[in-house]
Design a protein that fits this description.
Distance between the termini: 25 Å
Order of helices and strands: EHEEHEHEHEHEHEEHEHEH
Strand order of the largest sheet: 3-8-7-4-5-6
Number of helices: 9
Shape: elongated
Oligomer: single chain
Helix content: 25-40%
Mean pLDDT: 91
CATH topology of the largest domain: Rossmann fold
Number of strands: 11
Length: 256
């Protein structure tokens, strides 16, 4: 449950975002830090390691068997084309690409001639793919994913009887955070259950105390609660569809 007690509503001076630092200074996080004079740090609690072509072959997945690929992340795109290259597999020109968002669809330009390929995309969630999948029900889908594939997408594909096969092409690994042992933040922002797991792998005796925790998404929220931690800031919500908006609303309230 979300925290409601006034004794937790202390002034915020520092925020740790458990993601890589944005490549552009236009990130809303930097604007937030400037607006409220916050110390803002980025540190990815998890990182991705690719599965080698040798290990991928052990799963006996024949890339030529698939007529379409479902992409739900940029990591999936990167590692699909990496494995294809390592296996010397020439990706067919008529292969169809179904992407969970336009952002990921456009990312395909890194590897293929965008305008000459069959690319379709949804808005952002697994259910957004529904209309696309209905139009391509006769395809044989490959679903490149990590070893902690999104349950929502897998469940959706299974429940609707699509002819698909998940292919683990990369693994999510906990990062070494030992340098943060004596560093404390007013807010720690989590975006995935894996990041929460990484916190406890690095610091098994972690005590929340006055640290406020922000959680993005239902599965992250659940992972935080399972560790008996208090969620002080939650997103997305109707009033705060983004995490930066949720943090800003909280900071406005406590930094008066």
């Amino acid at each position: 449950m979300l925290a409601t007690s006034d004794d937790r509503k202390r002034k915020v001076k520092s925020v740790l975002v458990t993601l890589p630092k944005p490549e552009t200074e236009k990130s809303p996080y930097f604007e937030l830090a400037k607006k409220f004079n916050l110390k803002l740090d980025f540190r990815s609690f998890i990182h991705v390691e690719g599965v080698s072509a040798k290990d991928f072959r052990k799963d006996k997945v024949n890339l030529a068997d698939f007529t379409a690929v479902i992409f739900t992340s940029k990591n999936a795109v990167d590692h699909y084309f990496r494995v294809c290259e390592e296996m010397r597999y020439e990706v067919p020109v008529d292969l169809k690409y179904l992407c969970i968002s336009e952002n990921i669809a456009l990312y395909l330009q890194k590897y293929i001639q965008y305008r000459k390929r069959k690319i379709f995309f949804g808005k952002q969630t697994a259910s957004d793919l529904e209309e696309l999948l209905k139009k391509h029900v006769g395809e044989v889908f490959l679903y490149p994913c990590s070893d902690v594939a999104a349950e929502e997408t897998l469940k959706f594909l299974q429940e609707n009887g699509y002819n698909f096969k998940p292919a683990v092409l990369f693994r999510t690994v906990c990062s070494d955070l030992s340098d943060l042992r004596e560093v404390f933040y007013d807010i720690i922002v989590f975006f995935s259950p894996s990041s929460v797991q990484s916190l406890y792998k690095n610091f098994p005796d972690f005590q929340q105390n006055n640290t406020r925790i922000a959680a993005f998404g239902a599965t992250t929220h659940k992972a935080v609660l399972e560790r008996n931690l208090i969620v002080d800031i939650m997103a997305p919500t109707p009033n705060a569809p983004s995490m930066t908006m949720a943090i800003e609303q909280y900071v406005k309230q406590v930094n008066r």
